[in-house]
Design goal:
Layout lengths: L1 H8 L9 H14 L6 H19 L12 H26 L5 H18 L19 H4 L2 H25 L3 H28 L8 E7 L4 H4 L12 H15 L5 E3 L14 E2 H12 L14 E2 L2 E2 L1 H12 L2 E9 L5 E8 L7 E4 L16 H6 L21 E5 L6 H9 L4 E6 L9 H16 L3 E5 L5 E3 L5 E4 L12 E7 L7 H5 L2 H32 L1
Length: 542
């Protein structure tokens, strides 16, 4: 019970003060508590224990306001699958090894490879890696720069295994080793931060001035959902609330960022009257100077205009780059969940298409489930994007959309392509009043540290924030009492431009994966050798 509380709640988005305990000994306490049980009893308890850990940490999934009952099935099936992985780990820890150092390294390697395997199933499942508990502290978070979040998971399990050995076979040596392993991430972080502080020989460049817009428009306000029609807000009124916030907050910013699917009807659907739009812009920004017109057609048709028309006028009027998330239909009829960059200095509109799509909501993995998706009003699906895009070479802006921020290798590819600032556009509004926004934000901190570059996020309903290359929060949009979802407004922030290369950004998960495979191979070879030796001794006795 104690270990369930420590590990289940010891996350940055939950009871953050328990996270260091979970990283150092939470799992060890669980394994130590299985003493005296039979194999079947212990594995049953361990399965149920980690199943409830997952239920606690992903409790945001049971928010049913915008999800059908299928999300409950997904909630339980994912938790069951991950609990099975952990039960396999417990089987080796408690019944198949003698707790020699090479065996403990092999078990930690096994768990790391099991976590890695999750991101290759369907769209991948990138929540609840055990290493996330190390991200609660700025110093221990820096270990992500070596081998990423999976390296953090390896270290958490390895530390807990040596702590379990110290619990089971108490000695000064075993306790010392366990304590050293637990302290190492914090010591590394102190050295890492100090090293970069001392090595900052060049004067710091002026920070990037950005304005991050949190629209606080719920899905029911944005789209006409069946049974929630009365909550729908006409798109022009949605724009009115956005422009009002921009007019109040804009002060010569270099960059404006709006969230994923900021307004309905995509990039270039002609749904607004041009006169209505011009009058609305005039209301908030005054008389438009001569020459402030869209610099690329066709975003107006006769007397009708599109979302792109509004964004182009804003970009030209404010003389600033605007990044926004909008749906897009290509000439060949494909639909994309995209991010667009409107730059007043360029005539070509830049586009990035989301690469990792969510099953049922954004793409259909199995044709026989189409009837299920239609039941929830989902009939059109997106096509997958082909790779990273860098907006505005001078700034090195690398966009990602929502869930993509959770995938280390995807973000690393953008870094290798020349990114110097991650820009995440998110809509967590489908899971209101849950821990999802904070869990999502925690992953963003890890991506920044993994790649040594800052990150900014613009969300429909939180967490809208900016962090530097070390994962330090530069600014976050929140109310006086700390609320983050119910805030509508703009976050004006000065984003540090400093970047640095990390071991992870150079190598990715490759070295860690090779190390884990070699460790498992060595462990297996030693097991076979021991089995052969025992067999020979038995034969000699006979």
């Amino acid at each position: 019970g104690l270990s369930l509380v420590i590990v289940g709640l010891g996350q940055p988005a939950l009871w953050s003060f328990l996270a260091p305990v979970a990283a150092g000994a939470g799992f060890a306490i669980h394994w130590f508590g299985l003493r005296g049980f039979s194999v079947k009893q212990a594995l049953t308890i361990s399965f149920g224990w980690f199943f409830f850990v997952q239920l606690i940490q992903t409790s945001w999934m049971v928010s049913l306001e915008y999800q059908g009952l299928y999300i409950i099935a997904l909630y339980f099936s994912v938790s069951l699958a991950i609990a099975l992985q952990f039960t396999l780990l417990t089987y080796f820890v408690c019944f198949k090894i003698s707790l020699k150092a090479y065996e403990l390294i092999g078990v930690a390697s096994l768990w790391t490879l099991l976590e890695l395997s999750r991101i290759y199933v369907l769209c991948g499942y990138a929540f609840n890696f055990v290493g996330v508990s190390l991200s609660v502290n700025l110093q221990s978070l820096q270990i992500a720069s070596i081998a990423g979040v999976f390296g953090m998971s390896f270290w958490v399990i390895l530390t807990n295994l040596f702590a379990f050995r110290a619990f089971k076979s108490f000695s000064i040596r075993n306790v010392t080793v366990a304590l050293v392993l637990a302290i190492c991430p914090y010591l590394y972080g102190l050295v890492h931060l100090k090293w970069h502080e001392i090595g900052q020989s060049q004067p710091e460049a002026d920070p990037l001035s950005a304005l991050l817009v949190q629209t606080q428009i719920s899905p029911a306000q944005k789209y006409r959902f069946k049974g929630k029609e009365e909550r729908f807000t006409p798109p022009l009124e949605q724009w009115r609330s956005i422009l009002q916030e921009l007019a109040n907050a804009f002060k010569s910013h270099e960059l404006i960022v709006l969230p994923e699917a900021a307004v309905p009807y995509g990039l270039d659907t002609y749904i607004y009257g041009q006169r209505d739009v011009d009058e609305m812009i005039h209301e908030f920004f005054g008389e438009l100077p001569a020459g402030v017109v869209p610099h690329r057609a066709p975003y107006h048709l006769n007397s009708s205009v599109s979302n792109a028309y509004i964004l182009q006028i804003l970009s030209s009027l404010l003389q600033t780059t605007i990044i926004v998330g909008l749906d897009y239909e290509s000439a060949d009829g494909q639909f994309f969940n995209s991010a667009f960059c409107f730059d007043p200095r360029r005539l070509i509109l830049s586009r990035y298409d989301k690469q990792i799509l969510l099953p049922l909501a954004e793409y259909m993995p199995f044709s026989h489930l189409r009837s299920l998706s239609k039941y929830y009003g989902i009939e059109d699906f997106f096509s997958k994007g082909q790779g990273p895009t860098i907006f505005t070479e001078a700034l090195g802006l690398a966009p990602s959309i929502c869930y993509e921020e959770l995938f280390p290798s995807l973000m690393r590819r953008a870094r290798l392509k020349g990114a110097r600032l991650f820009v995440n556009l998110t809509n967590d509004g489908y899971y209101p009043s849950t821990t999802l926004p904070m869990q999502h934000f925690t992953q963003g901190l890890i991506r920044a540290v993994e790649n040594g570059i800052p990150l900014i996020r613009a969300c429909n309903t939180g967490v809208t924030a900016a962090v530097d290359r070390f994962g330090r929060i530069v600014a976050k949009l929140e109310g006086e009492s700390g609320e983050i979802e119910s805030i509508r407004g703009c976050l004006s922030v000065k984003v540090p431009r400093q970047v640095h290369w990390t071991l992870y950004s150079f190598c990715g998960e490759g070295p860690l994966g090779v190390f884990c495979v070699i460790s498992l191979g060595f462990w297996a070879q030693r097991c076979l050798s021991e089995k052969k030796r025992v067999s020979q001794i038995s034969l000699m006795k006979k």
